[in-house]
Amino acid sequence: MLRYVQRRLLVAIPVVLGVATIVFALMHLLPGDPAEVMLAQSGGQAETIERLRQQLGLDLPLHVQYWRFLRNLVRGDLGESIWLRKPVSQILWEQLPSTVELAVAAMVLAIVGGVSLGLLAALKHNSWVDRAVMVIASVGISMPVFWSSLLGIYLFAAQLRWLPATGQGDLRHLILPAAVLGYGTAGSVARLVRSSMLEVLGQEYITAARAKGLFWRVVVLRHALKNALIPVVTMLGLQFGGLLGGAVITETVFSRQGLGRTMVDAIIWKDFPLVQGEVILIAGMYVVVNLLVDVSYAFIDPRIRRGA
Q1: I need a surface site. Which of 65, 135, 179, 256 has the fewest CB within 10 A?
Q2: What's the whole-model pTM score?
Q3: 250-266: per-residue pLDDT in tens?
């Protein structure tokens, strides 16, 4: 198992390096001077633009900039925000808890709702319950996050007045954005659990377990569900990236603090170091979550460990 984890860590290192290199290339090789672009709205003078160019190291050769970028990245130095006048790492550290809180809450709701609905649809296969669950799941997958956010605010905040529409605070402020963000993921989980359960329930060992006289509930929960969840666990790592992307829209619509809303503000103000730092952080989180999924997958299926 230790060898498996070590191999996955070694694979993750070039992935993070590749993401950082792509971010650096996009920021430096696109047409236009980044310093002029950042100061275009404020009408910066030539002296101000040149001072910013020197501050960001844009006057240095590209390979020197790249080496300095990697060296500072290893040290955890992401530069200073031009808009907020604070270290980028400090800003990200302040905004990270709110986004992680939203993403984890949405993921928990997606797992609980998706697995329950998928299991129910599989056990009631070809019934009206099965068709109703698939309609609910399809609506969740196909509905854009910004539209479901506005619909949730109109229904549960403006009309029913059950939950606050926007802002940051206690659990009541978290429920609506987490439910909206997790709804689409729950739909994907439900569809995958349903198809996986139908495949597992048709296996011979399920028939043998029932022939031994085991209760149907024991067969489903102890033998079928565990094997059916293996592809679901793999998919959840990929879905986490989607939740982080959806958080950009959800935090903006619900006026919540977090990386997503800060990203939008940084793009509007053309804060080049902050945008670069946020992209690298989100990509790093995505790699870490997929690494954890790979490790948990090996725990569930011993064949993965033997093949490592």
Answers
A1: 135
A2: 0.77
A3: 888 888 888 888 888 88
